[in-house]
Automatic annotation (TrEMBL), chain A:
The keyword ATP-binding applies. This is Cell division ATP-binding protein FtsE. Keywords: ATP-binding, Cell cycle, Cell division, Nucleotide-binding. Signal peptide: none annotated. Residues 3-216 form the ABC transporter domain. It comes from Candidatus Shapirobacteria bacterium CG06_land_8_20_14_3_00_40_12. InterPro entries: AAA+_ATPase, ABC_transporter-like_ATP-bd, ABC_transporter-like_CS, ABC_transpr_LolD-like, P-loop_NTPase.
UniProtKB/TrEMBL annotation, chain B:
It is a multi-pass membrane protein. It is found in: Cell membrane. Pfam families: FtsX, FtsX_ECD. GO terms for cellular component: plasma membrane. The chain crosses the membrane at residues 20-38, 167-188, 219-240, 260-283. GO terms for biological process: cell division. The lineage of its organism: Bacteria, Candidatus Shapironibacteriota. This is Cell division protein FtsX. Keywords: Cell cycle, Cell division, Cell membrane, Membrane, Transmembrane, Transmembrane helix. Belongs to the ABC-4 integral membrane protein family. FtsX subfamily. Its main location: membrane. It comes from Candidatus Shapirobacteria bacterium CG06_land_8_20_14_3_00_40_12.
Length: 216, 290
């Protein structure tokens, strides 16, 4: 899934979060978005997810022009192709990890008979098989991040948006996650956009980088 | 995750709120059912009187045999007369004693002399009774009092009308209360589950997908309320059945046919379903817009 930003600006009242941003991410790319806190990294992710509306400019994701996406129905369909690793996890507190993943699969109309086996696979991939029946409150920060990743991976997305996914992980787990994302990108051709402020990952992977500074 | 599973999870996670909603709806349906059963009984009573037109002419004391015969003869001249029965003072006493056999206090002081003799006239056409009533009302030397079923029917009609109107108002009011209750409870739940709704929407869930469990929950409360309220009402009526049917004999005030009860149970379940669905649909439309 390709992503195109054409002179995109986003303001929250008098505060400009992003200003005249333009870039093009091709299908199968792995792109880092780097920048200091408050530089607009999360806003960029929210714009792609259509969590917030752009103020000016044009965004095209997977061939869909956001300015022409009039109904929520089309936005929902687009979101079902995107796996998101949220900075604040966004896991439902009264569902177990397994149920959280199952919910995501149910939303994308995944075959109900295949849901359990799919959950097995993704939990094994993120090394959380022994935590599947626990609730989010019973997991550490790192485990929550991996549960969030498992949910994103389970739907076999065309695009993965990872908003500071290594923020709560120790260096070993952070590297494991980066390697996993790299693996998915290379083997499945999934487009990955990852925000981070860990420049050592960026340098070692030698991928495309979008650098944001005060919204520009 | 199936919608029913999600709905059941919502219900399980807030038992007190759900109990409140189902309880309020049960009370509403209990009262609604009582009105329906009462109306059915009164209608049966009314029909009984309407289909058996009768007039009773109470006579003054001390009338001689010739006068009685002339009255009977005159009554026989009216058209569409089915039966003319003369109830003497002695027979009136026998009837009185039979009616009050369980209460000796009411019978021991009564003699035939204080009870009036009477003619009971039944007709094929109720209109003739009105003519008889008008004709004999003028004969004040012979007639003591005329009890014409029209009066009973009139008062029964008034009572039935009152019950029906009160019923309609109560049903409307109680349905509205049930609606508000479901509206408030589901509204609270939507507010409590705002995070879950937001997360689901970000994962690509449609607005209808996130609304579905709340709609089903409204329907659940409606159906549970209808079944519970109906069951309690039916239980009460069946408990009172011997007393009511004996009191209104020969009218069957509490009907014995299961079809009648099944019809009303189905109707109330449908009403509960609609109230629950409409309330939850309205509130979810109001709170889940995005």
């Amino acid at each position: 899934m390709d992503v195109v930003f054409d002179s995109v600006s986003k303001s929250y009242g008098p505060i400009t979060a992003l200003k005249e941003i333009s870039f093009e991410i091709k299908k199968g790319d792995f792109v880092f978005v780097v920048g200091a806190s408050g530089s607009g990294k999360s806003t960029l992710i929210k714009l792609i997810l259509r969590q917030v509306k752009l103020s000016t400019g044009r965004i095209i994701v997977g061939g869909s022009d956001y300015l022409k996406l009039k109904s929520f129905h089309n936005i929902d369909k687009l979101r079902r192709k995107i796996g998101v690793i949220f900075q604040d996890f966004q896991l439902i507190s009264d569902l177990t990890i397994e149920e959280n993943i199952a919910l995501g699969l149910d939303i994308v109309n995944f075959d109900p008979h295949l849901i359990p086996s799919n959950i097995d696979v993704v939990l094994k991939k993120v090394k959380l098989s022994n935590r599947r029946f626990l609730f989010p409150s019973q997991l550490s920060g790192g485990e929550l991040q991996r549960a969030c990743l498992a949910r994103a991976l389970s739907i076999d997305p065309e695009l993965i948006l990872a908003d500071e996914p290594t923020g709560n992980l120790d260096s070993v787990n952070a590297w494991n996650l980066i390697k996993l994302l790299k693996d998915i990108n290379e083997k499945q051709g999934t487009t990955i956009i990852m925000t981070t402020h860990h420049l050592d990952f960026v340098k070692s992977l030698e991928k495309n980088v979008i650098t944001l500074s005060k919204g520009s | 995750m199936k919608t029913f599973t999600r709905t059941w999870r919502h219900i399980r996670r807030s038992p007190i709120q759900n109990l409140m909603a189902s309880f309020t709806l049960s009370i509403s349906f209990l009262v609604i059912t009582l009105f329906i059963f009462l109306n059915t009984g009164l209608t049966a009573l009314l029909n009984n009187f309407e289909t058996k037109p009768e007039i009773t002419i109470f006579l003054k004391d001390g009338l001689d045999k010739a006068t009685l015969e002339s009255v009977q003869k005159e009554l026989g001249t009216f058209p569409d007369i089915k039966e003319i029965r003369f109830i003497s003072k002695e027979k009136a006493l026998t009837i009185y004693k039979e009616l009050n056999k369980n209460n000796p206090l009411l019978t021991e002081m009564v003699t035939s002399s204080i009870l009036p003799a009477s003619f009971e006239v039944s007709a094929y056409n109720p209109k003739v009774l009105e003519v008889i009533a008008q004709s004999f009302a003028a004969k004040s030397t012979i007639v003591d009092e005329i009890i014409y079923q029209k009066d009973i029917i009139q008062s029964l009609l008034i009572w039935t009308d009152i019950v029906r109107k009160t019923g309609v108002i109560s049903i409307s009011l109680l349905s509205f209360i049930a609606f508000i209750m479901v509206f408030v409870i589901i509204g609270l739940k939507i507010t409590n589950r705002k995070d879950e709704i937001n997360i689901s929407r970000l994962l690509g869930a449609s607005a209808f997908y996130v609304k579905k469990p709340f709609l089903l929950e409204g329907i659940f409360h409606g159906i549970v309320g209808a079944i519970t309220g109906f069951s309690f009402s039916l239980g009460l009526f069946l408990y009172l059945k011997p007393i009511l049917n004996r009191f209104f004999d020969p009218v069957i005030f509490v009907r014995p046919d299961p079809g009648y009860y099944l019809f009303w149970l189905s109707s109330e379940i449908l009403l509960g379903l609609l109230v629950g669905l409409f309330a939850s649909w309205t509130v979810s439309r109001r709170y889940i817009k995005w």
